[in-house]
Protein backbone atom coordinates (compact mmCIF):
# COMPACT_ATOMS: atom_id res chain seq x y z
CA UNK A 1 0.00 0.00 0.00
CA UNK A 2 2.83 2.40 0.84
CA UNK A 3 4.47 1.72 -2.52
CA UNK A 4 1.26 2.55 -4.37
CA UNK A 5 0.83 5.86 -2.53
CA UNK A 6 4.45 6.86 -3.21
CA UNK A 7 4.15 6.05 -6.89
CA UNK A 8 0.98 8.10 -7.18
CA UNK A 9 2.67 11.06 -5.49
CA UNK A 10 5.68 10.91 -7.80
CA UNK A 11 3.46 10.71 -10.86
CA UNK A 12 1.69 13.92 -9.80
CA UNK A 13 4.89 15.94 -9.50
CA UNK A 14 5.43 16.64 -13.25
CA UNK A 15 1.83 17.85 -13.51
CA UNK A 16 2.52 20.49 -10.84
CA UNK A 17 5.77 21.54 -12.46
CA UNK A 18 4.28 22.27 -15.88
CA UNK A 19 2.33 25.44 -14.90
CA UNK A 20 5.35 26.75 -13.02
CA UNK A 21 7.52 26.39 -16.09
CA UNK A 22 4.92 28.13 -18.21
CA UNK A 23 4.76 31.03 -15.76
CA UNK A 24 8.53 31.34 -15.80
CA UNK A 25 8.46 31.68 -19.58
CA UNK A 26 5.80 34.42 -19.44
CA UNK A 27 7.89 36.54 -17.08
CA UNK A 28 10.71 36.81 -19.63
CA UNK A 29 9.28 39.33 -22.14
CA UNK A 30 12.33 41.54 -22.74
CA UNK A 31 13.98 41.24 -26.18
CA UNK A 32 17.11 39.09 -26.20
CA UNK A 33 20.22 40.79 -27.57
CA UNK A 34 22.92 38.68 -29.19
CA UNK A 35 26.18 38.34 -27.26
CA UNK A 36 28.52 41.23 -28.04
CA UNK A 37 25.75 43.48 -29.34
CA UNK A 38 24.52 46.65 -27.64
CA UNK A 39 21.28 48.60 -27.25
CA UNK A 40 20.48 52.17 -28.34
CA UNK A 41 17.30 54.11 -27.48
CA UNK A 42 16.37 57.26 -29.41
CA UNK A 43 13.32 59.55 -29.44
CA UNK A 44 11.96 61.44 -32.43
CA UNK A 45 8.84 63.30 -33.47
CA UNK A 46 6.91 63.44 -36.71
CA UNK A 47 4.35 65.97 -37.89
CA UNK A 48 1.68 66.35 -40.55
CA UNK A 49 -0.76 69.17 -41.25
CA UNK A 50 -4.32 69.16 -42.49
CA UNK A 51 -7.00 71.76 -43.07
CA UNK A 52 -9.84 71.18 -40.58
CA UNK A 53 -13.17 69.97 -41.90
CA UNK A 54 -15.26 70.32 -38.74
CA UNK A 55 -15.92 73.16 -36.29
CA UNK A 56 -17.56 72.69 -32.90
CA UNK A 57 -19.08 75.55 -30.92
CA UNK A 58 -21.61 76.24 -28.17
CA UNK A 59 -24.57 78.57 -28.58
CA UNK A 60 -27.37 79.38 -26.21
CA UNK A 61 -29.73 81.79 -24.51
CA UNK A 62 -29.70 83.21 -20.99
CA UNK A 63 -32.84 84.89 -19.66
CA UNK A 64 -33.78 86.43 -16.33
CA UNK A 65 -37.17 86.91 -14.67
CA UNK A 66 -38.78 87.33 -11.24
CA UNK A 67 -39.70 83.65 -10.99
CA UNK A 68 -37.94 80.48 -12.08
CA UNK A 69 -40.90 79.37 -14.21
CA UNK A 70 -41.07 82.73 -15.99
CA UNK A 71 -37.33 82.71 -16.71
CA UNK A 72 -37.54 79.16 -18.06
CA UNK A 73 -40.61 79.88 -20.20
CA UNK A 74 -39.02 82.95 -21.78
CA UNK A 75 -35.83 80.99 -22.35
CA UNK A 76 -37.67 78.12 -24.03
CA UNK A 77 -39.29 80.45 -26.56
CA UNK A 78 -36.01 82.11 -27.50
CA UNK A 79 -34.07 78.84 -27.58
CA UNK A 80 -36.63 77.26 -29.90
CA UNK A 81 -36.03 80.17 -32.28
CA UNK A 82 -32.27 79.59 -32.08
CA UNK A 83 -32.58 75.87 -32.84
CA UNK A 84 -34.94 76.62 -35.73
CA UNK A 85 -32.39 79.08 -37.11
CA UNK A 86 -29.67 76.42 -36.85
CA UNK A 87 -31.71 73.96 -38.87
CA UNK A 88 -32.59 76.57 -41.49
CA UNK A 89 -28.86 77.30 -41.80
CA UNK A 90 -28.29 73.68 -42.81
CA UNK A 91 -27.22 72.14 -39.50
CA UNK A 92 -28.50 68.55 -39.25
CA UNK A 93 -30.34 67.26 -36.18
CA UNK A 94 -27.47 64.87 -35.39
CA UNK A 95 -25.10 67.84 -35.13
CA UNK A 96 -27.15 69.67 -32.47
CA UNK A 97 -26.93 68.44 -28.88
CA UNK A 98 -28.08 70.10 -25.66
CA UNK A 99 -25.05 70.66 -23.42
CA UNK A 100 -26.54 72.73 -20.57
CA UNK A 101 -30.02 73.48 -19.23
CA UNK A 102 -30.10 75.20 -15.85
CA UNK A 103 -32.11 77.58 -13.65
CA UNK A 104 -30.35 79.44 -10.83
CA UNK A 105 -31.33 82.15 -8.36
CA UNK A 106 -29.86 85.64 -8.67
CA UNK A 107 -28.98 87.20 -5.32
CA UNK A 108 -28.99 90.89 -4.49
CA UNK A 109 -26.06 92.36 -2.60
CA UNK A 110 -26.58 93.11 1.12
CA UNK A 111 -26.66 96.76 2.15
CA UNK A 112 -23.13 98.07 2.71
CA UNK A 113 -22.67 100.34 5.73
CA UNK A 114 -20.34 103.32 6.08
CA UNK A 115 -17.79 101.31 8.05
CA UNK A 116 -17.47 98.80 5.21
CA UNK A 117 -19.52 96.04 6.79
CA UNK A 118 -22.74 94.66 5.35
CA UNK A 119 -26.20 94.51 6.85
CA UNK A 120 -28.60 91.66 6.31
CA UNK A 121 -28.34 88.50 4.24
CA UNK A 122 -28.36 88.19 0.44
CA UNK A 123 -31.88 87.80 -0.91
CA UNK A 124 -33.12 86.30 -4.17
CA UNK A 125 -34.11 89.07 -6.55
CA UNK A 126 -34.59 87.03 -9.74
CA UNK A 127 -33.97 83.73 -11.48
CA UNK A 128 -31.69 83.08 -14.43
CA UNK A 129 -32.32 80.31 -16.97
CA UNK A 130 -29.66 79.10 -19.40
CA UNK A 131 -30.00 76.68 -22.30
CA UNK A 132 -27.01 75.82 -24.49
CA UNK A 133 -26.43 73.46 -27.38
CA UNK A 134 -23.20 72.07 -28.79
CA UNK A 135 -23.14 72.40 -32.55
CA UNK A 136 -20.97 70.72 -35.17
CA UNK A 137 -20.52 72.87 -38.27
CA UNK A 138 -19.38 70.91 -41.33
CA UNK A 139 -19.42 73.71 -43.91
CA UNK A 140 -16.62 75.86 -42.54
CA UNK A 141 -17.03 78.54 -45.19
CA UNK A 142 -20.51 79.21 -43.74
CA UNK A 143 -19.38 79.40 -40.11
CA UNK A 144 -19.41 83.18 -39.69
CA UNK A 145 -22.78 83.45 -41.42
CA UNK A 146 -24.28 80.80 -39.14
CA UNK A 147 -23.06 82.60 -36.02
CA UNK A 148 -24.59 85.88 -37.19
CA UNK A 149 -27.86 84.08 -37.94
CA UNK A 150 -27.95 82.65 -34.42
CA UNK A 151 -27.36 86.03 -32.80
CA UNK A 152 -30.10 87.59 -34.90
CA UNK A 153 -32.40 84.75 -33.80
CA UNK A 154 -31.82 85.57 -30.13
CA UNK A 155 -28.68 83.72 -29.04
CA UNK A 156 -26.74 85.77 -26.50
CA UNK A 157 -24.08 83.17 -25.70
CA UNK A 158 -21.72 81.89 -28.38
CA UNK A 159 -18.41 80.22 -27.55
CA UNK A 160 -15.97 78.61 -29.96
CA UNK A 161 -14.99 77.42 -32.40
CA UNK A 162 -12.90 74.32 -31.88
CA UNK A 163 -11.60 73.11 -35.23
CA UNK A 164 -11.18 69.38 -35.77
CA UNK A 165 -10.63 66.64 -38.31
CA UNK A 166 -13.56 64.27 -38.56
CA UNK A 167 -11.18 61.47 -39.55
CA UNK A 168 -7.63 62.04 -38.32
CA UNK A 169 -6.27 58.51 -38.80
CA UNK A 170 -4.56 59.22 -42.12
CA UNK A 171 -2.86 62.37 -40.83
CA UNK A 172 -1.71 60.60 -37.66
CA UNK A 173 -0.28 57.69 -39.66
CA UNK A 174 1.67 60.18 -41.78
CA UNK A 175 3.11 61.71 -38.61
CA UNK A 176 3.99 58.25 -37.26
CA UNK A 177 5.86 57.32 -40.43
CA UNK A 178 7.79 60.60 -40.31
CA UNK A 179 8.69 59.99 -36.66
CA UNK A 180 9.93 56.47 -37.34
CA UNK A 181 12.05 57.63 -40.29
CA UNK A 182 13.61 60.33 -38.15
CA UNK A 183 14.29 57.87 -35.33
CA UNK A 184 15.98 55.43 -37.71
CA UNK A 185 18.10 58.20 -39.23
CA UNK A 186 19.32 59.18 -35.77
CA UNK A 187 20.02 55.58 -34.84
CA UNK A 188 22.07 55.10 -38.02
CA UNK A 189 23.96 58.32 -37.26
CA UNK A 190 24.86 57.28 -33.72
CA UNK A 191 25.71 53.74 -34.75
CA UNK A 192 28.02 54.89 -37.54
CA UNK A 193 29.76 57.34 -35.21
CA UNK A 194 30.38 54.46 -32.80
CA UNK A 195 31.58 52.11 -35.51
CA UNK A 196 28.46 49.95 -35.27
CA UNK A 197 25.40 49.19 -37.36
CA UNK A 198 21.68 48.92 -36.62
CA UNK A 199 20.50 45.31 -36.62
CA UNK A 200 16.83 45.53 -35.72
CA UNK A 201 14.11 47.31 -33.73
CA UNK A 202 13.56 45.95 -30.24
CA UNK A 203 10.74 48.15 -28.87
CA UNK A 204 8.56 51.07 -30.00
CA UNK A 205 6.63 53.41 -27.71
CA UNK A 206 4.38 56.19 -29.02
CA UNK A 207 2.75 59.34 -27.69
CA UNK A 208 1.24 62.29 -29.49
CA UNK A 209 -1.91 63.97 -30.74
CA UNK A 210 -3.00 67.07 -32.60
CA UNK A 211 -2.55 70.75 -31.87
CA UNK A 212 -4.88 73.41 -33.34
CA UNK A 213 -3.47 76.67 -34.63
CA UNK A 214 -4.88 80.00 -33.36
CA UNK A 215 -8.12 81.15 -35.00
CA UNK A 216 -9.90 84.47 -35.32
CA UNK A 217 -13.42 84.65 -33.93
CA UNK A 218 -15.69 87.60 -33.14
CA UNK A 219 -17.75 86.90 -30.00
CA UNK A 220 -21.51 87.29 -30.04
CA UNK A 221 -21.55 89.98 -27.36
CA UNK A 222 -19.72 92.34 -29.72
CA UNK A 223 -21.84 91.45 -32.72
CA UNK A 224 -25.07 92.23 -30.88
CA UNK A 225 -24.02 95.85 -30.40
CA UNK A 226 -23.62 96.45 -34.13
CA UNK A 227 -26.69 98.34 -35.35
CA UNK A 228 -26.30 98.25 -39.16
CA UNK A 229 -25.98 94.95 -41.07
CA UNK A 230 -22.36 93.89 -41.29
CA UNK A 231 -20.38 91.33 -43.28
CA UNK A 232 -20.25 87.82 -41.78
CA UNK A 233 -18.04 87.51 -38.73
CA UNK A 234 -14.45 86.73 -39.80
CA UNK A 235 -13.25 83.24 -38.96
CA UNK A 236 -9.85 81.80 -39.92
CA UNK A 237 -9.71 78.00 -39.70
CA UNK A 238 -5.93 77.75 -40.17
CA UNK A 239 -4.39 74.27 -40.05
CA UNK A 240 -4.32 71.39 -37.60
CA UNK A 241 -0.95 69.88 -36.80
CA UNK A 242 -0.81 66.18 -36.00
CA UNK A 243 2.16 65.08 -33.90
CA UNK A 244 3.54 61.65 -33.15
CA UNK A 245 6.40 61.08 -30.72
CA UNK A 246 8.15 57.73 -30.72
CA UNK A 247 10.81 56.21 -28.53
CA UNK A 248 12.54 53.34 -30.32
CA UNK A 249 15.09 50.89 -28.97
CA UNK A 250 17.47 49.35 -31.51
CA UNK A 251 19.96 46.52 -31.35
CA UNK A 252 23.43 47.47 -32.58
CA UNK A 253 26.13 45.12 -33.79
CA UNK A 254 29.81 45.58 -34.78
UniProtKB/TrEMBL annotation:
Domain of life: Bacteria
Keyword terms of this UniProt record: Signal
Keyword match Transcription regulation: no
Gene3D superfamilies in the cross-refs: Protein of unknown function (DUF541), domain 1, Protein of unknown function (DUF541), domain 2
UniProt GO BP: DNA damage response
Signal peptide: 1-24
Name of this protein: SIMPL domain-containing protein
Organism: Novosphingobium olei
Amino acid sequence: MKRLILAASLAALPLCAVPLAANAQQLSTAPVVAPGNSVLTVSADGRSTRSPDLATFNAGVTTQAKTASAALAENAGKMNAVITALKKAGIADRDIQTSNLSVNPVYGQPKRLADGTTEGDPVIIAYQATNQVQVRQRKLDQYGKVIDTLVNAGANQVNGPSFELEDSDGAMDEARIAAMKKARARADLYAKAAGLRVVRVLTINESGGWSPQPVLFARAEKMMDAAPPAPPSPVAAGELEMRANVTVTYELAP
